[in-house]
Amino acid sequence: MLLKHTPEEITERKALMINPAKTCQPIGAMYAALGVKGCLPHSHGSQGCCAYHRSTLTRHYKEPISAATSSFTEGASVFGGQANLLQAINNIFTVYEPEAIAVHTTCLSETIGDDLPQIFDKAIKEKKVPEGKTVFGAPTPSYVGSHVTGFSNMVKAMAALAESSGKRNGKVNILPGWVEPSDMEELKRMADMIGIEITMYPDTSGVLNGPLTGKYDMFPEGGASLSDIKESGDATGTLALGEWCSAEAARTLDSRCKVPCSILDMPFGLAATDRFVDALRTVGGTSVPEELSRERGKLVDFISDMHQYFYGKKVALVGDPDQLIAMTEFLVSIDMCPVHVITGTPGKKFEKKIKALTESQEYEVNVKAAGDMFLLHQWIKNDPVDVIIGNTYCKYIARDEDTPLVRWGFPILDRQGHQHFPTVGYMGGLRLLEKILGVLLDRKDRDDSEMTFELVL
Ligand code: SF4
Predict the structure, then answer these.
(1) CA of 38 to the centre of ligand 1 (A)
(2) Does residue 202's CB lie within 6 angstroms of at least one atom of ligand 1?
(3) Which of 119, 153, 186, 437 would give a disulfide with 138, using CB separation of 3.0 to 4.6 Å?
(4) CATH 3.40.50.1980 in the chain, residues?
């Protein structure tokens, strides 16, 4: 019982968070920056922040994460980090030769008040940024927001690089939000099936799920190219997946370059994928191919074949807002009951959205934004569930409460597969259901009496 001190009785806490269901803003910014080809993320703060952010991403993706740091010491903490960042920009372009540096701030540099655009201007004037290379960045103090906000801020900074030539290039921008590299691959595959030319950014496929080649490549082949990002200002439209992760960037593209945008839910599950496919088809002026309809049919078939095992099962969900909104809709649609839903990312809109998705149900739903895992555990103690869906940190609750766990979201530190097998789209929906069904039926097999233990399920 590793969490044996978690009491059942819930008392209101205003100034205390226990086991947060979120992590630092810069981790999201770093992940987003890795989705730009030839880009080196740079942490403007102390070495400790950078080491933590890199190691968290390495543990999740099982890949080496390259990132530089301004290496603040006492001097920079008192007088500001401008000198450190200018020197870092010079060193990085000289030694590592990236195409771009994506700088994110940390709690310390934000508290000092370092002004990134002013430092970038100075670096350019002092010729520390070679011709044709780019420096961009985002403010990501961790005392507000979460890793999701940091991701969103960095994608917005990418969108601010877009330029408009005044002519539309017929492409569609997809801002995928914080999904796995495998999910990004799947979104590209679906767009390709529908016959639409897209620009996706960030795009970590081929960067964080590449093969073992025996050769270390600091800048792998994958990632959205800077020229594509710049040309995204000429696209026909933008599909932004996830209000929290992608909407700000899409609105930036709209206001800067007049690229109309649609903000969609992330395409997890049947209905959200239908809406994504329909939006793609509409903005691209094409129709849905038979092959994609067949994939949809397989997901519908799975749901109808196995519905009896999903029906009425109570679920506790923890993760990031965009993922949880789509997952809640999916679970409700297959008659599962998401009774506890928690995200560490702030935003009351999240609670309203989850309430709206579950209002027609007969059960009560506990939902909280800016919540923590301690509260989730208390909810589960008071109202046990059949399955928990969330990141690796849920394993402590799952073990103490003897509840099956489906690992999904960020971070997953103790399993593999998320980088390679998508959970978006129809095929991703099949994988999600297979994972959920697997743990439910394993538990049934474990708990069934000899009379009810069945060979065929
Ligand atoms: S919370 Fe702030 S100081 Fe701590 S690791 Fe994150 S960015 Fe650095």
Answers:
(1) 26
(2) no
(3) 153
(4) 25-157, 172-291, 298-447
What is the pTM assigned to this prediction? Answer: 0.97
CB 66 near ligand 1, within 6 Å = no
Look at ligand 1, atom 2, and give the residue with the nearest C-alpha. Answer: 107
> Cβ(49) to ligand 1 under 6 A?
yes
Find the helix packing angle between 270-284 and 181-194, rounded to 10°.
50
Element (DSSP H or E) covering residue 446: helix 425-447
Classify domain 298-447 by CATH number: 3.40.50.1980
**Could you give the CA distance from residue 213 to residue 153 in angstroms, rounded to a whole number?**
33
**What one-letter code names the amino acid at 389?**
I
Q: Where do the H-state alpha helices sit in 220-347?
A: 226-231, 243-257, 270-284, 290-310, 321-333
CATH annotation of 172-291:
3.40.50.1980
Residue with the smallest CA separation from ligand 1 atom 1 is 142
Q: Using a 6 Å cutoff on CB, does residue 140 contact ligand 1?
A: no
Q: H/E element holding 407?
A: strand 405-407
Q: Is 77 in the pocket of ligand 1 (CB under 6 A)?
A: no
- For ligand 1, the distance from its centroid to the CA atom of residue 434, given in whole angstroms, is 37
CATH topology of domain 25-157: Rossmann fold (3.40.50)
Q: Is the CB of 105 under 6 A from ligand 1?
A: no
**How far apart are the C-alpha atoms of 258 and 235, rounded to whole Å?**
9
Q: Is the CB of 150 under 6 A from ligand 1?
A: no
CA-to-CA distance for 344 and 321, rounded, in angstroms?
9
Cα 332 to middle of ligand 1, angstroms: 37
43 Cβ inside 6 Å of ligand 1: no
